[in-house]
Amino acid sequence: MRQRKVPQRLCVGCQEMKTKKELIRIVRTPDSEVVIDATGKKSGRGVYICPNKECLHKAIKSNRLEKNLQHKISEEVMTRLKVGLGYDDTK
Question: Cβ neighbours of residue 60 under 8 Å, at least 6 residues apart?
Answer without folding.
Answer: 78
